[in-house]
Amino acid sequence: MRFDIVTLFPQIFSGYLSQSLLAKAIDRGLVEIHIHDLREWSTDLKHHKIDDRPYGGGPGMLICVEPVINCVEAVQKMSDTPGVVMLTTPQGDRLDQRGVEQYSQLNRIILLCGRYEGFDQRVIDILDPVEISIGDYVLNGGEVASMVLVDSTIRMIPGVLGDEQSSWDDSFSRGNRLLEFPQYTRPPSFRGHDVPEILLSGDHGKIADWRSKQAMEKTKRRRSDLLE
Ligand code: ADE
Q1: Is residue 172 a part of any domain in this protein?
Q2: Among 23, 29, 44, 100, whose Cα sits 20 to 30 Å from the Cα of 224?
């Protein structure tokens, strides 16, 4: 799967891209990520400006239509698959696991990261992107939201996780509508907090029952909406 990320802050992605799971997926050829600096498509050759004041007045600056369209059109031509254009914005549809599963089936996503007060409306009218929000709060820009989208999507690509079962088992996925049950590792006792006896019993049937009961109780307590 190929991601093309269009951003004004390409450096934001460098640490994330070299992070272990993603770096491994890239190394193994399962995921390709290309970062494109929007400023390189500026029509202002001197200062590489890409934003301007809104017509009609108002606070902040808007990203201009021309560099964005030129950039996205050039990026689309970089591969035979045109790809689906997405825009990270607080005005978008809320990202959830169902969306993540759908996006992981795509061959290519071109992700536009918003900044400042937003884009000139014509960017949206011309590109008709899928607009995605990661929650009802406002970030300084769409870069973090884009990383969330990439991170959650690549988990679903076969082969990216060592064990195929692990993403199937994730909370909110098709294989599991429950929150995670509690897990423990050594030592068996720490500052008076003991590992539940049952997990040390070696009885796999009872352990499985205990885990599903714990997952169900936690879901009822915290996220009863998931059980509806
Ligand atoms: N850009 C700014 N805030 C955002 C959010 N909540 N989701 C996606 N993109 C954003």
Answers
A1: no
A2: 100
Global pTM reads 0.92
Determine the distance separating the centroid of ligand 1 and the alpha carbon of 220, expressed in angstroms.
29
Cβ < 6 A, ligand 1 pocket: 88-90, 114, 133-135, 137-139, 142, 145
The DSSP-derived string for 2-69 is EEEEEES-TTHHHHHHTSHHHHHHHHTTS-EEEEEEGGGG-S-TTT---EEPPTT--SS-EE-HHHHH
Q: Which atom of ligand 1 is nearest to the CA of 88?
A: 9
Domain span holding position 202: 177-227
Number of domains making up the chain:
2
What pLDDT, in 10s, does the model give residues 153-204? 999 999 999 765 577 778 788 777 899 999 999 999 999 999 999 999 999 9
205: domain CATH number is: 1.10.1270.20
Amino acid at 13: F
Alpha-carbon gap, residue 74 to 96, rounded angstroms = 30
117 catalytic? Reply is yes
Asked about 182 being catalytic, the answer comes back as: no
Distance in Å, CA 228 to ligand 1 centroid: 28
Q: Within this chain, do residues 148 and 192 fall inside the same structural domain, yes or no?
A: no
Does 155 participate in catalysis according to the annotation?
A: yes
Q: Whose CA is nearest to atom 2 of ligand 1?
A: 139
**pLDDT (tens digit, 9 = 90+) per residue, 44-86?**
989 999 999 999 999 999 999 999 999 999 999 999 998 999 9
Q: How far is the CA of 119 from the centre of ligand 1 (A)?
A: 13
Same-domain pairing of 138 and 222: no
